[in-house]
Amino acid sequence: MSIAPHFELGRVFERDNIEFRKSAGSVLSGGMLGVGILFTLLTIGGALGGDAATKSVALHAFYVGAIVALGFPLGALAFHMICNVTNAGWAALLRRQFENMMSLAWLGCLFVLCAFLFQALLVNVSDVTTDKAAGVYAPFLWNWMDPNYVKGDVLYDHKQPFLNLPLFLFLSIVYAAVYIGLSQVLCGLAKRQDEDASRWHTLTMGRLSTIGLVLYAFATMFAAFHWIMTLDFHWFSTMYGVYFFAGNLVSALALLTAIFIALRFFGKLNGAFTDEHLHDMSKFVFGFTVFWAYISFSQYFLIWYANIPEETAYFTMRRDEWTALSFLLPIGHFIVPFLVLLPRPARRNAGLVFVMCCWMVFMHIVDVFWNIRPEAKTKVPGYSWLDVVGVLGPVLIFGGLLVRKIVSQPLVPLHDPRTTEALSHKNYV
Amino acid sequence: MAVIDTHNAREIAPEEPSYYGIMAEFDDIPAIFEAAQKCRDHGFTKWDVYAPVPIHGIDEAMGMKGSKVAFCMGAGALTGLTIAFLMQWWFSAGSKLPGLLDVFSGYEIITHGKPFFAWEQAVPIMFELTVLLSAFATIGGMLALNGLPRWYHPLFKKDRFLRVSDDRLVIAIEAKDPKFDQSETKAFLESVGGNHIELVEE
Fold this sequence. Notes:
Chain A is mainly α and 429 residues long.
């Protein structure tokens, strides 16, 4: 019978197949880290040297990069926990890369903290105080933290019980604790399984993930509200948490799939990442691309239908001032990947899937940019060089640390009890 | 045996019985799996494997190509999408279709102070009709490609075959197959491990 693993167990776990040389990837990770840090310093320098509007642009651009760098680990964490809960055997050997990515959750949370501190720094060095009548704004990221901005704002007074600094800081610590705690505990269990080969760690992971997913869902919902949606605190959308989650998941899956294809290109993971696993990963990229489109259209559609001024302002401002991006998003983030990845042969074509995955990561950056960057209070809308360096700084730092993490340990879990199932995985449809 | 046509009171020449094909039983799943691979490699095209349980990978062992149902589904989806869009545009925008009388123009319906036609409001219906028609096309295409509904099958005449829904594994090669030859195919099925080989009458 041909129902046997595509690859013998022993050969998959040969050192050449699942480990890199000690020095491998150091140029890549070092380069990404170096350029990332340089870009971040340039952003800070550009912000300190510019006027209030420039400061605001730099701050928002940095925050775009921070949220993108946060989104990858969050998406990987969610997918890892879903795989644990459903006892997904096919992904058993791919798990290590999910873990590598989600173990950087601390970095994303640190970037959000940095953005908060960056805002405090810029507000302190800037001598501009907000005067809405004159159209002058202090460089705040979260405008509701600006006492001059919210003075006499009826909507703010109404939302004040939720939107105040002590609650914001307290809940931010809670969100970060959930993300970092879950990812570190799960990664710790995986590491211990590599050492002691106990299959019970897999069960523990599954049980922990059931509770973890609930905590994660609440944390993501409110982190999206607190950290991103309140950049324009007049606006509200109950869909926003899911929107944030959908974007994170599709970007994380796209980056992971690209990483797997790259690893296979370098001659690793033979037998552990076959065309069958590629097919499933690209199915998930495809599926969550559609999920993102469904969620973002629903959000837009309900606001369009209800036609409430403080809701529609969010979209009309983006449509009028960021027209190109507003049209690029539905086409590039949905229609193009939908049509390209729809046929089954396309989803099994590693080269094509790699290109589409890189494109989806780029489109996720565009998505986050479209959400955050228009909130910068500048008189003239438009792009600046700070948008490029500000966004790429945190993203490249994340990328550098991720590459370093990937090459530092075996590319697959060594003693997962579902290894045989993963090796013989096959798509019958 | 001669048949007497009593109505016309004349003798009819005995007819050569026509055969549906040949069926053979197999002992277990690995045996039928290997036999299926051999039938495939021998070049048979009109034949099938009958088993009480799904056998993973049997489609590949039989050399089956991918199903064409997806194309039926795609056609249904595109039809639904187009119909839904045109329908709503025609109904609600007061559009006059070229070549049609004015009687057939749609109504301009004012709802919520919205434009008479906007793509946003059309999307849910477009989605629904796409899903609905692709579901219909999928079911219909599946039935058509399988030749269903069909109330009779020659194999049902064989008592041994009826146990295929219980504990028997059967391969049946049809007489329509270009490579079919009564004695040769019988020998072939024997050589790949079949037992209780029987001719199946039409």
